[in-house]
Amino acid sequence: MVHISRICLRKYGNFVDNLRLYVRGGGGGMGLPRLGGQGGNGGDVWVVAKKNMTLKRIKDKYPLKRFVGGSGGNSSVRALKGEKGTDVEVPAPVGIAVTTDDGRIVGDLNEEGDRVLVAKGGSGGSLYSAFEPTKGQAKHIRLDLKLIADLGLVGFPNAGKSSLLTALSNATPQVASYAFTTLRPEIGKVMYPDYKQISIADLPGLIEGAYMNKGMGHKFLKHVERTKQLLFVVDVCGFQLASKTPFRSAFEAVQLLSKELELYKEEVASKPAILVVNKMDLPDAEDKLAELKEQLKNPEEFSDLLPGDMIPKNYMTFRHVVPVSAMTGLGIDHLKSCIRQSLDEEATLKSSDVLQEKLLRLPRVLLQPATSPSQRALTVVRDTSILNSRLLHTLTLE
Q1: Which of 19, 109, 210, 297 could form a disulfide with 96, with the two C-beta atoms 3.0–4.6 Å apart?
Q2: Cβ within 8 Å of residue 149, ≥6 positions away
Q3: Which residues contact 167 (CB under 8 A, 6 or more apart)?
Q4: What is the value of pTM for the model shown?
Q5: Which positions fall inside the OBG-type G domain (predicted)?
Q6: What CA–CA distance (Å, rounded) separates 342 from 198?
Q7: Three-state DSSP class for 27?
Q8: Where are the beta strands (DSSP E) in the chain?
Q9: How far apart are CA 373 and CA 32, in angstroms?
Q10: Residue 119 in contact with residue 69, Cβ under 8 Å?
Q11: Element (H, E) at 75
């Protein structure tokens, strides 16, 4: 039996996924000219990934959003070398990208304990600066949260993403017949009989033009970046966002979603993907599913169905196409199996690539020419033993 738990990211009031902070390194300490004393360096400011931390907690705990390193100690007769100023740590959740105001990436926090230096303390006064200290770096930075999940649900509004996660988790999120029901990210966790856990991020629905920041735009798309794989969800009968917008078939929805991701970042569109064809309980669903599968086999032949500027450069190839009904539960168990299989296959490929890379880094063994069959046999055994021992040593070190 597969157990599902659902974690709502909006646990502490309104969900916060971006925070702007002022950081300044501490000033250096004064030098002592008559004795050649050197002042202490100012304290640095670091952003550090902490467990169970949220941007909302940072915002509430530090309302001024100012972090300043300690000042370096002055040089004195008793202590010619001034003490270094105290470093300051800004706690942050895992999954943060630290950027400057103009969008330049300073660093990423992908695991607990990761650290990024954001403001260096000033240098203490010394002979080289006429014993005058320097000020610490001062700047504004942004902490930008990008969810880290195994899979990200990708779909247009009302495709049934929240209903799908409900079917998986037996939870009761906001689900309605109008388009926008998911306005903040949520994560569902799937636990398999062998205790393997897989996380699925349910994200706000895209609209056409999301890559230009329409609708939830970049607020949604940035969260897709750190998911390992994508779970496309489309309505088998197609959808129409509003009375003034064109109707889109399931095939058109798939291609438009691909194009939106491609226009945002091509590497996002190249992630492994599974296609979930939802609402199979509707009339004529089987016929529409057969039509969709035929179109996906030769998408170029049906490109005339799409606006010219919304045809993807590369058509998405799905590892699995899974018909489901989130309402009746049809196909849900099969979908769970496909998700597990796809992620396991990807993990195996990555492990193989890492092993191959380590083998290529091993130094080549210079073989001595062997003059007889017995010598050649001994050489093969010797060289194999050397390679194995070096590989084991390399793997142990890393």
Answers
A1: 109
A2: 187, 199, 200, 201, 226, 227, 228
A3: 324, 326, 327, 329, 332
A4: 0.65
A5: 149-344
A6: 11
A7: coil
A8: 3-8, 18-24, 45-49, 66-68, 88-92, 96-100, 105-109, 115-119, 138-145, 151-154, 186-191, 197-202, 229-235, 273-278, 320-323
A9: 78
A10: yes
A11: none
**Ordered per-residue pLDDT tens for the chain, 398 residues:** 555 444 333 333 356 778 999 999 999 999 999 999 999 999 999 999 998 888 989 999 999 999 999 999 999 999 999 999 999 999 999 888 999 988 899 999 988 999 999 999 999 999 999 999 999 999 999 998 876 688 888 888 778 888 888 777 644 444 433 333 344 567 787 778 888 888 888 766 555 443 343 434 455 677 777 788 999 999 999 988 777 878 889 999 999 889 888 888 888 888 999 999 999 999 999 999 999 999 999 999 998 888 887 889 989 999 999 999 999 999 999 999 999 999 999 888 888 777 777 777 766 544 445 455 555 544 444 445 544 555 445 444 44
Cβ proximity of 144 and 96 under 8 Å:
yes
The structure tokens 């793997």 sit at 395
Tokens representing 359 are 């083998």
Task: For residue 277, give Cα distances in angstroms to 255, 295, 323, 380.
Answer: 14, 14, 5, 55
Are residues 28 and 122 in contact, defined by beta-carbon separation less than 8 angstroms? Answer: yes
Q: Provide the token pair at 212.
A: 């230009």
Sequence letter at residue 232: F
Return the SS3 of 26: coil
Six-digit token string for 63: 């309302």
Question: Kindly report the CA angle at 80 between 76 and 85, in degrees rounded to 5?
Answer: 85
Which region, left, alpha or beta, applies to residue 327 given φ > 0 means left and ψ of -120 to 50 means alpha? alpha
